[in-house]
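Lecture 7 notes. Example A: sequence first, then its structure tokens.
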Amino acid sequence: MAMNQQGRPTRPNENAATGGYADTISGSRGLDQAEPLIFERGRTDLTGVDFPELKGTKTRLGGLERKSDIGLPGLSEPEAMRHYVRLSRKNYAIDLGIYPLGSCTMKHNPRLNEKMARLPGFGDVHPLQPQSTVQGALELIGELAHWLMTLTNTPCVAMSPKAGAHGELCGMMAIRAALDARGETGRRRVLVPESAHGTNPATAVQCGFHCDEIPANADGRVDMEAFKAKLGPDVAGIMLTNPNTCGLFERDIREIADLIHEAGGYFYCDGANFNAIVGRVRPGDLGIDAMHINLHKTFSTPHGGGGPGSGPTVFSQALAPFAPVPYVVQKGETWHMVEHEAEARADGAEPFGRMVAFHGQMGMFTRALSYMMSHGSDGLRQVAEDSVLNANYVLARLKHVMTPAFEGTCMHEALFDDRFLKDTGVTTLDFAKAMIDEGYHPMTMYFPLVVHGAMLIEPTETESKSGLDRFCDVLEGLAEAAKSGDTARFASAPVHAPVKRLDETRAARNPVLVWQESEDQPQAAE
């Protein structure tokens, strides 16, 4: 008898009425398990572990003993494990699919890096160990510092900043220290292009500066005439992102650097987008005085979600003396950490101080150096080339159905605006919500602010052509659906996500942050 070659239909479009799913009694959909809050699943009068009553002991809490129930739900060990496993299945992750967030560089984190970060001696190092017992760790920090300076062509790097914004703070504090050392305490105006990252003006203000915005020209780059008009004796410097937040390279960066130096100021470059030029362009050759480097963006350490992060800051010869302590130096065959300002001054430096209790994030250093060494110089160059190639491929694939914000090619990210949605009844937000139903995290929406209805896509170098084609097919289909008048799918989206369409205004103004058993508790979302 011949085998049945037809089989059963398994694609989710069998049931269009329910989006491919049948209604279920449990609320689960196949392997997509319904999961209530842990407070709703457990009971506060039970505990998963029973402890015997203590006898014959005297309390040492000094009257601070708990007098009421703690109010936490009790679950058995399997119930607790299943709860968190089910929650993990509701998270979007780089291991699940492409993260098209622009200006965030959510790239694949190689498992080799994770293995190296967990090696004994790196994974269990303690910041209070004697320096003689952590020579390997100090050497690794020194090696990473060497390559960061080599890639940027700068003579100094501060490794202690914990993240990009912290690196910005480090750079601007060094600029202020340099100005104060020159006796020019009146220089407190910082020029900030409108295409810069939003943390730039916040950092400048925190350092005691005030910001003066520079408009962009029609090409999305710094308006040079406006920039020249703002130069003056009170200018402390400029904070410029290159490539900028519109995904464009600032072609006049050498002239900008020369003009700011002639005016007596310093050039701070936001290095968040260094992955677009690493191995091809050395920022030191462009005239920068300080630049932070996001290790998670360029060198594949994990996005920390607030930590752990690392944002080393490189300095030019002019600012190098003001770099903060601590820093690592090699003396003969021994590695030494200079931890005190007095010791640094004995070597001729003038550090502005100390930013952190300890030197940095050892796990991030190990991952970043592993990435560098596994790629080599040619591989790092290819990182930039593939980042730019992938972004321009997305731009080329979609520009016939979506509207690019600027003409021509881009760098590491493709920027679209909402003109293609005009008169469709579909908003930028609707478009983003529909992407969730398609199994994709939306790109960065409404940013940069200088572009109306912005949609910023950064595919990174770690995405394959086939993966980008699948992503572009979805966006192309959604754009065509919007133009054809199929507004219903957008207005109700997402319908397949664990959480449906939120009332975002109410959620922002009336967030429910604490679970309450009351049935009439206010809801932040419908």
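Example B, a different protein, same format:
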Amino acid sequence: MNRIHFHTLILFLLAFGLTACKDQLDVGNPNAPTVAGNVTDESGLVSFAQGAVYINGFVNGDGWLGNSYFSLPYGYSELLGDVVGAQASNQLVSTLSIPDYVTLDNGQKLANSSPSIGQIRANNTRAQTGSGYNPTYYQWLNMMAMNSSLNSVLKLIDKISYSGDAASKVATFKAWAYFWKGYAYASIGSMYYAGLIIDEEGKTSSEYVTHDAIIERSNYYLNEAATALGAVKTTADYEEVLGRLIPSFSQVGNGGVLTTDMWKRNINTLLARNILVNKLAPFVNKNPSATITKSSTTAMSTADWNAVLTLATNGIKKGDYVFTGRSTSSNYLFSASGGTVASLTTGTNTSSTFKLSERFVQNFKTGDKRLTNNFEQTGTYLDEMTFGTRWSIVDGGKGAAGVYVYGNRTVGAYELYIAGSYEENALMLAEANIRLGKISTGLAFLDDVRSYQGAGIATVADKNLVLADALQELVQERRVALVFRGLSFYDSRRWGWTYDIANGGGSYNNTVLSSSGTVNTKAVINYNFLDYWDIPADESSLNPTTSSVPTKNPNF
């Protein structure tokens, strides 16, 4: 990591720092130069290791739009995945996800005079970063900062004296650091064309490697975490450490102190995700055999699908604890009203920061209780291209028992998924089985997700669907079940929708509300987005490459 990033981070002084409430976020300031040197006991290491993840990874530097990683970098995923749109100009949120053109039902073509690729590259400068208009900056900043801090954590672990079973506590701390390093590398490798591998405290590097190499490094650390968990012998000491590393306010609902087996299953889910979201599985215009002719990645092979199937079979199960986040009234990881994409989208569309996309809503099937419980047409927001919408999210839902709630701005009510979830794992099992020819088996997993979220619609596993229809069910369910979890762009990319129609991409049969208020149901959208982002100028300009790997995506 370039030193300039670390020095920049020091400027973001924590509001709670070392005085944080013990029952909320018990962190030190991982950026203060003297903190690491002063960590001499378990309590200090807990604070430092927790802050490395939750503060450097998910808070610092994200106060431009909302107030966390889950409102800004997650926001870009939902924008580029066409789940939400925006009117505000902050960080290009109103222009970044505008497609190159939209063809309406009547044949009228609406062209974008400032295409997304040109927008993102024109604003990828240090000057625009300082002004708050460089989208490429934030995810890189957070994940590189998290990784750097965890390098310091790993250097400290063997220097501390421990009470109880020291070996089990050391293994727990190492599993924590390895897991989140794997998470950070996955985030970099899944979003940027290239990256840096830095695994020593204080080390810098100009040797950029491809996103595939970054994903390999993610896999390495996720597997190291699983190995460390295997060294835990005393459950009580393990639970004591992990129970302090995970904030108490996140130990509710699906969040909690994971058993070692639960954590290993969480790891397998992320390993499966690393394969799935970084390969192509084109499904363009309902064609399972579609191909993309110009891309920064390759298509899923049978071996890839089998690897996903094996990992997800041993992935998160129903009832497993996962890593989640919750809002609090103070000293928060994120606020209830502005810290997540969900909170910024909840409320009447004419006043919410993000506007719910018509393309999102069209994926619900008739009679789905998730639609009727969460969304209503309380206002109409009209705009050019694709941002017009008739739909708004009802704050807290309408109270239907057992039905998933998409947005809740009450403090502590909304459960944010930071890493994997049961639904994601089940839908990976569904897609892998479908692609491997076991359609009914795959659709049974999809049916279970719908039941789990209280959709209340008829099952499809028993309908003898052909491949194209089964994949359409899968696409629709991933779009609605995994929304606001930072996955929407990756899905649109791997299904081929974000690529230029000239290269086999595009999206068809879309609902688009035109600026005149006309509802189109068969609109064609040519997004033509970058598939993997360029390295932010704050890194590439100040830390120029010494390798042959470009820092600018050469395929666009």
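Note on Example B: The longest strand covers residues 519-526. The first helix runs from residue 3 to 10.
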